[in-house]
């Protein structure tokens, strides 16, 4: 009985004739994305160069790129609310939530950096620190956690300083949501609508019964109230994701440097822990205590 033999296969995929291969006069993928420039921006400074510094740089550079997109979408969501386009705002907030999930998951990659590995190049970072990320501060500002004192950190960077100063004096996403509600017949207190937007939003008890009415009314069959209720829940998702991002940052720092001071001069883990107490939309959490109360 003879054995059946198979002709060896060429383990390649043929290039279709219609595929463009000549880019001498056409725009290529790399040119469109400026890949030659982009891939030259990872510049380890440790001497001798430490293997894991590239991970550290890419982690933070990609985070900044995602934060750039997050800011882009947050500004657009805010404008949609100004334009009374609630559907458009919800679409952009949904995208923000997916961006946040990506940012949260990225910490798992950096968490593979052991304390010994990080110690090999940490000293070369000088005083550079994530605390100095103006895009992170810009996200906090547009969500409502304003802090004018943060601008002093960016006085040596006029462009970053201008971005933050602009956002400091502009209404936050939450401010514009409350103004949207007022324009649509929801009784938002005047002092809330006329508040100093350069200050961080603080818990306003008078808003809680307003949201109780929205939450309870949404289940009465009113489509307009349901959309507002849906937006409230989307904002809660957004804040929950932001807090998860903060928490994963805290845990990654703790497992990597323990309780050492941060390179930027902060107390490190203790400083990051206190950030978990900050909130953007306090009334949307307080309403949960009131729902269903006799």
Describe the structure.
The protein has helices at residues 29-32, 35-38, 53-82, 86-110, 115-119, 134-143, 158-168, 173-183, 190-193, 208-217, 223-257, 269-275, 282-290. The chain starts with 28 loop residues before the first helix and ends with a helix. The chain has 294 residues and is an all-alpha fold. Helices cover 56% and strands 0% of the residues. The longest helix is centred in the C-terminal third of the chain and has 35 residues, at 223-257. It is built from 13 helices and no strands. Helix 3 runs parallel beside helix 6 (134-143) and helix 3 (53-82) packs parallel to helix 8 (173-183).
Gist of the model:
The protein has 13 helices and no strands.
List the helices and strands and how they pair.
Layout: H1 29-32, H2 35-38, H3 53-82, H4 86-110, H5 115-119, H6 134-143, H7 158-168, H8 173-183, H9 190-193, H10 208-217, H11 223-257, H12 269-275, H13 282-290
Helix pairs in contact: 3-4, 3-6, 3-8, 4-11, 6-7, 10-11, 10-13, 11-12
